Amino acid sequence: MVQLPDLSQRSPLNFDIGPGWIVAFVALVFVHIELHEIAHTAVGRMICGEWGPRNFNSWQTACSPIPEIVLAPLAGLVFSYGLMWVGYLLLAPDNPSERRSIGFCLVFGALPLGRVYTVGVLGGGDEMVILTGAFPSVDTSLLTAVGLVLVLLLVGPPLYRAFTTLSNRRRGVIFVALFLFPYVLFEVGIQGIANPLLARGVLDSEGLLGSPLLVNVWTVFWVITLAASWRFLPSTLHQR
Fold first, then answer.
1. Cα–Cα dist 157/84, whole Å
2. How far is residue 133's CA from residue 70's CA, in Å, rounded to a whole number?
3. Strand 14-15 versus strand 237-238 pairing type
4. Which of these, 107, 112, 136, 173, could form a disulfide with 87 (CB 3.0-4.6 Å)?
5. Is the pLDDT of residue 6 over 90?
6. Contact (Cβ atoms closer than 8 angstroms) between residue 91 and residue 107
C-alpha cells in the first residue's frame, strides 16, 4: 500500500504567541548578539594569541596581521548569516510546524535589520570592514552600494520564506514588527543600557573569554533565560 505524504504542514502557518514566547525570543536575540561577538573575538584570539578589547557590540584584535585579520570580522558574519540560513532550511514547507517555528525565530533573531541598516544607512559593519580592507582605493559610496546588495542577497531569501510561511491576515504587520523588534532590543538593551553601564566602570574588569565581567554576567543571565523558556519557541507557528 502506497502511503501518501502528509501535506498538512505544507500550507502557511498561523503566528500566535504569548508572554513566554516573548521572553524566549528576547533571550534568543541577546544570546545571538553575544555569540556573534564571541565569533569575532575568538578568531582574533587564535590569530593574535591574546584577547583584544571589547564591549557589548564593538571589538578590536590585539594585532593586525594582513591578510589573516579579515577572518575575525568574517567569523561573526558567517555565524549570523549562517543562523538565518539554518532558519531558511528549517522553514522548508515539508517540515513539521515545530521545526518551522524554530527556523522562523532564527531568521528574525539573527537581526537581519541590523545587517541591512548598519551597511545601508551607517555605511559600517563587518561587511564594510572587509570590503574597505580588500578594496581600499575604491570609492566608499560604491563599496557601500556593493555591501548593501550583498546583504540583501543574503537576508532576502530567509526573510521571504518567513513572510510566505505566515497565514495571518495581517502577516505584513507581523512581519514588519518582527523585522524591527530585534533591532529595537539591540538599541535599547545593548546601546541604551549595557554599554553605558560598562562605560561607567560597572564590572569592567576582564572576565571569561577576554570579555568584561559585566558581559559575562549579562550573557549567563540570558543563556539561562533562553534555556528555561526555549519550550515556547517550537509553538510559534501552528495550523489554524
1. 9
2. 8
3. antiparallel
4. 107
5. no
6. yes
CA distance 39 to 45: 10
Task: State CA 154 to chain mean position distance.
Answer: 13
Q: What secondary structure does DSSP assign to 34-92, as a single string?
A: HHHHHHHHHHHHHHHSSPPPB-SS-B--S---TTGGGHHHHHHHHHHHHHHHHHHHHT-
From residue 182, alpha-carbon distances to 26, 42, 80, 111, 228 in Å are 8, 24, 13, 6, 20
H helices within the chain, ranges in order?
A: 19-48, 71-90, 97-109, 112-120, 126-134, 140-165, 171-185, 195-199, 213-229
Average pLDDT over residues 203-220: 96
In this structure, which long-range contacts are made by residues 33-36, counting pairs with CB atoms below 8 Å and at least 24 apart in sequence? 33/57, 33/111, 33/186, 33/190, 34/215, 34/218, 34/219, 34/222, 35/79, 36/76, 36/79, 36/80
Instruction: Indicate if the pLDDT at residue 72 is higher than 70.
Output: yes
Q: What gap in Å lies between CA 214 and CA 58, rounded to an integer?
A: 14
Instruction: Match 514566547 to its residue by C-alpha cell.
Output: 21
Helix (H) / strand (E) containing 15: strand 14-15
Q: Has residue 102 got a pLDDT over 70?
A: yes
Per this entry, what is the length of the chain? 240
Of all residues in the chain, what percent carry a pLDDT higher than 90? 85
Mean pLDDT across 10-38:
94
